[in-house]
Amino acid sequence: MQxxxxxxxxxxxxxxxxxxxRTALPAGNVTVDVAWSGINYKDAxxxxxxxxxxxxxxxxxxxxxxxxVHHSEDPRFxxxxxxxxxxxxxxxxxxGGLAEQARVNGxxxxxxxxxxxxxxxxxxxxxxxxxxxxxxxLEDGGLTPAGGEILVTGASGGVxxxxxxxxxxxxxxxxxxxxxxxxxxxxxxLGARAILPRSAFTGDTRPLEKQxxxxxxxTVGDQVLASVLAQMCYFGVVAACGLAGGITLPxxxxxxxxxNVRLQGVDSVVAPxxxxxxxxxxxxxxxxxxxxxxxxxxxPLSGTIEAAHRLLNNGGTGHTLVKVQ
Length: 325
Prior knowledge:
The protein is α/β, with parallel strands linked by helices. The protein has 2 domains: 2-112 and 295-323, Alpha-Beta Complex (Quinone Oxidoreductase, Chain A, domain 1); 125-265, Rossmann fold (3-Layer(aba) Sandwich), CATH 3.40.50. Helix content is 28%, strand content 27%. The chain has helices at residues 41-48, 118-140, 158-169, 184-190, 222-230, 254-258, 273-286, 291-294, 304-312, and strands at 2-9, 12-19, 30-39, 64-72, 82-86, 101-104, 109-111, 150-152, 174-178, 194-197, 213-218, 232-240, 262-265, 296-300, 319-323. Strands 3, 4, 5, 6, 7, 14 and 15 form a 7-stranded mixed beta sheet that branches. It has a 6-stranded parallel beta sheet with strand order 10-9-8-11-12-13, with helices on both faces. The chain has a two-stranded antiparallel ribbon with strand order 1-2. Strand 8 (150-152), helix 3 (158-169) and strand 9 form a beta-alpha-beta unit. The chain is globular, with a radius of gyration of 20 Å.
């Protein structure tokens, strides 16, 4: 079978699409014929070797995939069934989805929900699941479309793009933050009503600024998140799910104790099955048909290495879909 294989030589990561015997697949009780996967930020770091994502080599990256069950020893799944997987360390410490076949633990799999097929599921992918979990976090914090404007940072990426489409479809007034003017038309197509430059959130900020945002979804972290927190309205809710800009948070307690702001972390890697199922059902129901044309770019398995470099160089918009088979 063909796989994207990562190996390490003198401390440097080497990536190549190559043939591997199926007997090399790791242990698991369900084998899946992979049809679709994607290139996420974490995949790009692993493939290029620019992040310490992979600890054990050789490794097949790909933190998500969709396909059909080839063989199952798990009674919950049967041959021919359409399934998807996101997270659980797959593509990091267990061979992932950038291969024609994957063998995994059945606990990590979900049936593809009604209204989606494998291709659509992977256009959404881990990024889209994370975006839905962020929207659910805002709702859990009491936000409604009537509550005020919602800010989305890192708006042209996979999480940001899906978040804008979801929030817009639910009736929220969405303002997008993007560092590239070339993305503005794309973001407006997704449903953003206003767009601000990233530079507006990267300078020095006071502990409290003018109240602007009822809610926010942040994929950047560091100074951008600190600036967002300073601008939150009273009872505002921020869902933080990314660190593309850095892992620090140079803020104060003032937004939290003077404006009752809630900062909610969102993780999709080990989210419980019941929350994942709810999120996927809502994704299938809420996302408009146009989203699947607007928010993805497709490459074959042979194009994954180039796509990973392009993603880290801030090229393209939305999510990179990989046609594996």
